Amino acid sequence: MIPNNVLILGPPESGKIRLAQHITKDLDTSTISKKSHSGLIYNHTLKTKYFSTDLNLLIEEFPEERPVEAEKFLDSLREWKSAFESKEYEELRDALDGIIFTINPDQTSKRDWKEIMHCYYEIKNSIDEGSFSTVIASTTQSTECLEELEDECIQYGIEFIYEGETGTNEFKEKLGKERVQEILESHEWSHISPSEPQEYFKHKEDKVDSMTRGLLEPENESIALDQLVEKLRLERSKATDMKPEEKENYVKLVIEELIDYI
Predict the structure, then answer these.
(1) Is the pTM value of this prediction over 0.90?
(2) pLDDT tens string 115-160
(3) Do residue 246 and residue 181 come from a single domain?
(4) For the segment 200-247, what is each residue's pLDDT rounded down to a tens digit?
(5) Which residue from 3, 116, 121, 219 has the least number of CB within 10 angstroms?
(6) Which residues contact 11 (CB under 8 A, 6 or more apart)?
(7) Which InterPro entries match (predicted)?
(8) Residue 254, SS3 per DSSP
(9) Half-sphere exposure for 116 (CA within 13 Å, toward CB)
(10) Does residue 203 fall inside a structural domain?
(11) Which residue in 214, 255, 208, 217 sits closest to 236, CA to CA?
């Protein structure tokens, strides 16, 4: 099977390796350089009830210097973005199904967050329109800091995940690193092997029936219409600045999530 590729991009000590190990369960550290994590590849076979696919998790790191200095973070990101958008990286851009940005809020200056998210947004837009992107923040002591960072992500239609969270939110979405796993399992990959096609379609039909009943039966406490409306409002805000073709694909993914949510 042709593998799908996901780029995990971030500075040193922002959780790239922790995330890759969480997804793949590969805890071997013998090949990890102490100087730079750029170029590391984690291979993983993702299996769900409906399909299986091979993934390459490609690790890229900026800046090269350690420890990371907040004053140099933005310049290093701009330099990396410029190289990534060049002709030299066209083949890599075309091969990506998604990008996961890892960030340690304590390594950056708040005054740079808007520009950092703008860079992430432009990197995301340089790859295939059907790809996914998300920002996952590593542990910080400030809850307020995380909320401000999440607000910046929402402005650019990029999902924000806090690594330290667990459980589920009011929309029945998983939190923390488990949310990344959920995104991987729900993405429409370029290359997959269907498990049981008939079982998959039967599952979707059942979900649509369940959605219909839930919306028509307000007394059913397991279906909260106000939560569904709030979910739609949040997703709409994320799609505001997307290109028309990108927005169409995003809406399709939202509909898939809503069916599973109901």
Answers:
(1) no
(2) 999 999 999 999 988 899 999 998 666 677 788 889 999 888 899 9
(3) no
(4) 556 566 665 665 555 555 555 444 566 666 677 777 766 676 666 666
(5) 219
(6) 61, 62, 63, 68, 73, 76, 102, 103, 104, 107
(7) Irc6 (IPR034627)
(8) helix
(9) 28
(10) no
(11) 255
